[in-house]
Amino acid sequence: MRVRKYALLLVLVAVSLLLLTLQSRGYGSRAGDLVAAVTTPLQAGYARVTRGALAVWTTYRDWKNVRAENRRLRAEIERLRVEALRVSETDDENRRLRTLLALQERLPLTTLAGEIIAREWGGWVRALTVNRGRADRVARMTAVISPFGLVGRIVDVRPGSAIVQVLTDPASTVGAHVVRTRTPGIVEGEPRGTIRFKYLARDGAALQVGDVLVTSGQGGLFPRGIPIGRVRAIDDRGAALFNYAALDPAVDFGRVDEVLVVTGRSPQDLTAYFLTGG
Amino acid sequence: MRTLLALTVVGGGVAHATLAPTLRVAGVTPDLPLIVVVLLALRRGPEFGCVAGFVAGLLQDAAGGGLLGVQALTKALIGFAIGAAGGRLAVTQPLVQVPGLVLLTVAEALVRFALLKLFRFPAPLGELLAWVVLPQALYNGFLGAALVLALSWIESIRARSA
Question: Does the domain spanning B2-161 belong to CATH 3.30.70?
């Protein structure tokens, strides 16, 4: 019994190490696909239930405010409020989708609309799962955007879904420049869930709070000119080679529900196509 | 019973990606699968804890799009260790549950960090501990203790009605 216990532990440790070794040699996607085949439909179901539960909670809170009124009126108001909430929810969703569609039509490159079905927000990894995958011909390292700017890049593609590494992920780096001064640098994610701009001190003397940063397009991963964020504070490190600027992201990653996956390419600067551009 | 336990482990792993963000407090989310694994390991022993940890960790790895096997390994080890030590721990006391889960979360994070470092994980340990691990460890501690208390309360009500 005792031997069986330790044998089981050894087997599981060996399987984990084997998985890690296979992935480090580039054979990991098949195992990921198998797990995703089980998790993707479950995640989609959970997402629906969670959103439903939150809507019920919001409705309940509104109900509490009309307690003092008489029962008949209260019942009427409750019914109307539930209906109004439903309408306003639909309205909000329509507005968001219309903005997304408008951006999709405006942009001079091909994109694919997708819905966020899960979020991994632990801090080690900050990722979103989008319901577009290999079946939609989505490729790794594809940019993912919202009407406000860059959300991140796709780091893993499964048959019916893809994992988006968000800009705030500690392993995320994106080439960027400041729109006003053209100062080049790199936007990095930080473990605390924020992003910062790293630039050569000699290039960034004119940087100001409020400056807008966009993707530089260097390296060909992201199209040029997608908004990333605004400078919130400048961390001048004196004689150091690099200085840093804390940024307010252009996109609220915690609340983004619909995104566009950029499937095409464009040499054009896209700054003017976004809501916060310039 | 086994099906129910399997559903708990799979459900815990999948729910982490969808439910945990809604439990976010000041940017900190709990590690639901870790709590589920610890609770199951305490009740069912090291073998079950080990398998539950492996499955829940694997699902978390898949949900995050990172390296498959990192959390499967760390959570299998945690499940085994807690299952093996379960009989010797006075886990009904909140004064044991909270620091216990805090220490477990930190231990799991350190093993995970060491493994990820082998694959060139870029974040520094100090910042991760300060901004991610310790806040999450505290959250896990209090949430886990609340769950243990809720479970024992439900069991006492059941016993009384039976």
Answer: no
Q: Which residues of B fall within a CB distance of 8 Å from A20?
A: 67-70, 73, 115, 119
Closest residue in B to A191 (Cα) is B128
Task: Tell me, yes or no, whether A186 lies in a domain.
Answer: yes
- Domain positions in chain B: 2-161
Convert the pLDDT of each residue in A113-158 to its tens digit: 999 998 887 778 889 999 999 999 999 999 999 999 999 999 999 9
Q: DSSP code of A220?
A: G
**A277, pLDDT greater than 50:** no
CB A169 within 8 A of CB A176: no
CB interface of B with A, residues 89-118, below 8 Å: 112, 115-116
Contact status, residue B22 vs residue B63, Cβ threshold 8 Å: no
Inside any domain, residue A17: no
Structural domain boundaries enclosing A227: 27-278
Whether residue A2 lies inside any domain: the answer is no
Chain B interface, best mutation among A2, A9, A10, A40, by max B CB count within 10 A: A9
Q: Is residue A15 part of a domain?
A: no
CA closest to A42 among chain B residues: B14
DSSP string, chain B: -HHHHHHHHHHHHHHHHHTGGGG-BTTB---HHHHHHHHHHHHH-HHHHHHHHHHHHHHHHHHHTS-TTHHHHHHHHHHHHHHHHGGGS-TT-HHHHHHHHHHHHHHHHHHHHHHHHTTT--S-HHHHIIIIIHHHHHHHHHHHHHHHHHHHHHHHHHHHH-
What are A182-207's pLDDT values in tens digits?
A: 899 999 999 888 999 998 877 777 88
State how many domains chain A has: 1
Q: What is the pLDDT of residues A30-63, one digit of tens each?
A: 777 777 777 777 777 767 776 776 777 777 767 7
**ipTM value of the model?**
0.78
- Which of A46-60, A65-79, A125-139, B16-30 has the highest average model confidence (pLDDT)? A125-139
Which of B67, B68, B71, B136 is the best residue to mutate to test the A interface, defined by the most A CB atoms within 10 Å of its own CB? B68
**Which tokens in the block code for residue B41?**
């390991």
| pTM, entire model | 0.66
